[in-house]
Amino acid sequence: MFGLVVRFTCKNEESAAAFDRLVSETIAKIRTDEPGTIVYASHLVDGQPLQRIFYELYQDRAAFDAHEQTDHTKHFLAARGELLISTDVDWLQHQDGKGTTP
Q1: Does residue 100 sit within a domain?
Q2: Where in this chain does the record put each ABM domain (predicted)?
Q3: 46-64: pLDDT as tens digits
Q4: Is the pLDDT of residue 76 over 90?
Q5: Confidence of residue 100 (pLDDT cuts 50, 70, 90)
Q6: Contact 42, 27 (CB under 8 A)
Q7: What backbone phi and psi angles, to 5 degrees, belong to 52?
Q8: What's the pLDDT band for 94 if we cut at 50, 70, 90?
Q9: Domain boundaries, position 59
Q10: Considering the domain boundaries, does residue 98 fall inside one?
Q11: Which of 26, 38, 73, 88 suits a disulfide with 7, CB 3.0-4.6 Å?
């Protein structure tokens, strides 16, 4: 498996709302068009209204690479920049867990 956690910090409340709309549109396409994406979850952060955390889990690196090449992901990557102050990515190496197999 191949995964990552991403923390996004939006510029302000308006950009957070726009980011959430962009995320919703993107996830709709991920659900229907990406069989190699196991988990793609967006989270709000308690007490941090401008932050969002994504947890992404893919079958393998090839599935992640395929995700990155989709039109909806390319659109998300291009559109998010004007809405954010920062993006922090942690690449994950699977160790163990319920509902997952290495």
Answers
A1: no
A2: 2-101
A3: 999 999 999 999 999 999 9
A4: yes
A5: low
A6: yes
A7: -135, 145
A8: confident
A9: 2-92
A10: no
A11: 88
- Structural domain includes residue 102: no
CATH assignment of the domain containing 26: 3.30.70.100
- 92 contacts: CB under 8 Å, gap ≥ 6: 2, 3, 4, 5
Dist. CA 4–CA 89, nearest whole Å? 7
Residue corresponding to tokens 């709709």: 28
Tokens representing 51 are 């932050």
pLDDT of residue 49: 98
The Cα–Cα gap between 29 and 56 comes to 15
Q: How many residues does the chain have?
A: 102
Task: Specify whether the CB–CB gap between 13 and 47 falls below 8 A.
Answer: no
Which amino acid belongs to residue 2? F
Residue type at position 40: Y
Spell 56-70 as b/e; 16+ CB within 10 A means b: bbbeeeebbebbeeb
